[in-house]
Design a protein that fits this description.
Elements lengths: L6 H6 L36 H14 L6 H9 L7 E2 L15 E2 H14 L3 H13 L17 H13 L14 H4 L29 H11 L23 H17 L5 E2 L7 E2 L1 H13 L3 H14 L1 H7 L1 H14 L11 H6 L9 H11 L1 H15 L3 H7 L6
GO molecular function: catalytic activity
Protein name: Prenyltransferase alpha-alpha toroid domain-containing protein
Pfam families: Prenyltrans
């Protein structure tokens, strides 16, 4: 039910279950640290500052916005001299020392955001070099350097490598690439949860199905990051032994499609609580399913989000709005009208305003005054000799 984040965020506050790696506590209304200028959101950024900023900038870029310089500068200012990023550095002017816990997830998220922002090739290159330097011998990555590899961390790094123009298959340690690591977390077809991915094996070596890890692993197996578009439908829809990344993706996609087919959403189980809808993981599943070409279950899940996820996004802030925008982008939906709410305006209001081109500005204004604006456009178009049909078709473009 919470915002998807990194594994260590919950570990830091003592509420991370071994098989539930990527959900985050709600933003604190009273931050333990001062929220710096340029950072989106008002919640305590200690465990998610870089993550939520990165998702925000990516979401803005999918809509044609140019993120505010202050927002991009805040993110680049978080980078350590060795290229890595921690979840948050309260004193970025000070050099990174042993107390700064750089991690793969924050670094990989920042790479994807800065690669999309353009003009930050040096920062991206240094971050990618650092990620390569901490790759494990199984080809994957753990959250912290030296930690055991896991599905989520490995997949977010795959997305970063792809965004930076590096083929993940060429990034190897001891002869193994991240694509070689993924099959180890794919649950055999004849077991409970067959086809799903585990976050990582538990202490007894058992793999437990994890929906968030499955969505992340599906994107990783496809070689994609947070930003994805609908892909080609898979050739098969049944579970088979996962020896290659293609088989991992096919199995994971089939599992996720079946998981959302019943209710339109995924569920989460918190210790001592009943199962409840998991909005963040459902949004991730929409992106993953769409990227895998399974658009029908993705649309069903998106429709459920559109009907139910508004209050969740309002409560959780930038990363939640960004996740929903990325889900809309994957399906070609309009986040400017998400159940009667503009996700884009809601997100942009939480930090420095991004820049928009004249077309985006025009669509923003037409949202404010849809009746008058539309007829004015048609009138101008008629005078100019432009067909009404063409003008109306232009209204179908994605708008904030």
């Amino acid at each position: 039910m919470n915002v998807r984040r990194s594994a260590a965020a919950l570990a830091a506050v003592g509420v991370l279950a071994a098989a539930a790696p990527a959900t985050a506590a709600e933003p604190s209304p009273s931050p333990k640290v001062t929220v710096p200028s340029g950072l989106y959101g008002k919640g305590d950024p200690t465990y998610d500052g870089v993550w939520r900023q990165s998702l925000t900038l990516l979401a803005q870029r999918t809509l044609g916005y140019r993120p505010a310089a202050a927002a991009v500068d805040w993110l680049t200012g978080q980078q350590c001299a060795n290229g890595s990023f921690a979840a948050f550095r309260a004193a970025p002017a000070e050099p990174c020392d042993d107390k700064v816990k750089a991690d793969t997830n924050s670094t990989a998220a920042a790479v994807q955001a800065l690669a999309a922002a353009d003009g930050h090739g040096i920062a991206v290159g240094k971050a990618v070099d650092w990620l390569k330097s901490v790759q494990n011998e199984d080809g994957g990555w753990g959250y912290y350097p030296g930690g055991p590899s896991d599905t989520n961390s490995t997949s977010v790094v795959i997305g970063a490598l792809t965004a930076a123009g590096t083929d993940p298959a060429d990034v190897r340690r001891s002869g193994k690439s991240p694509y070689d690591a993924l099959p180890a977390w794919s649950i055999p077809c004849d077991q409970d949860g067959g086809g799903a991915l585990a976050y990582q094996a538990d202490k007894k070596g058992k793999l437990l199905p994890n929906a968030d890890a499955t969505a992340a692993g599906l994107l990783g197996a496809l070689g994609k990051g947070f930003v994805a578009r609908a892909g080609k439908a898979p050739a098969r829809d049944t579970c088979a032994e996962a020896r290659t990344r293609t088989q991992v993706a096919d199995n994971a996609g089939a599992y996720l499609a079946a998981a959302v087919a019943r209710t339109g959403h995924l569920t989460s189980a918190l210790p001592g609580a009943e199962d409840q809808p998991d909005f963040g993981n459902t949004a991730d599943a929409v992106v993953a399913l769409a990227a895998d070409g399974r658009t029908e279950p993705a649309k069903k899940a998106y429709a459920w989000l559109e009907k139910n996820a508004g209050p969740w996004a309002t409560q959780n802030g930038p990363a939640a709005y960004a996740q929903l925008i990325l889900a809309a982008h994957a399906l070609g939906q309009q986040p400017g009208d998400f159940g009667g709410t503009s996700l884009v305006r809601s997100l942009n209001a939480l930090g420095p305003a991004p820049h928009m081109d004249s077309a985006a500005e025009h669509e923003e204004k037409s949202d404010d005054d849809s009746g008058t604006g539309l007829w004015w456009i048609i009138g101008v178009g008629l005078v100019a000799g432009i067909g009404i049909g063409f003008l109306l078709s232009g209204r179908k473009k994605q708008q904030p």
